[in-house]
């Protein structure tokens, strides 16, 4: 049975986090690791949207920024819910 896109997304995300933690454990600062991940994501998002030869116009950049903002909002909402649950469990 093949995995759903949601399962693939979750597994791929965890692989990136594992790699980031490996790099951090090699002595690279977390701020550098985070910035490098963001840069890699921006490069890859540009490739997905415009290919190797093209670049994003301002509206394309806004679409990528909006997608990133949406992901960040979802993650922060989950973190708040987890914290609230932990506080209720105490």
UniProtKB/TrEMBL annotation:
It comes from the Bacteria. Pfam families: DUF3144. This is DUF3144 domain-containing protein. The lineage of its organism: Bacteria, Pseudomonadati, Pseudomonadota, Gammaproteobacteria, Cellvibrionales.
């Amino acid at each position: 049975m093949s995995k759903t896109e949601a399962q693939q997304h979750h597994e791929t995300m965890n692989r990136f986090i594992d790699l980031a933690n490996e790099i951090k454990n090699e002595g690279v600062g977390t701020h550098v690791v985070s910035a490098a991940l963001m840069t890699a994501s921006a490069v890859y998002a540009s490739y997905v949207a415009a290919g190797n030869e093209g670049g994003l116009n301002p509206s394309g950049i806004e679409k990528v920024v909006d997608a990133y903002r949406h992901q960040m909002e979802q993650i922060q909402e989950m973190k708040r819910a987890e914290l609230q649950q932990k506080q209720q469990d105490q």
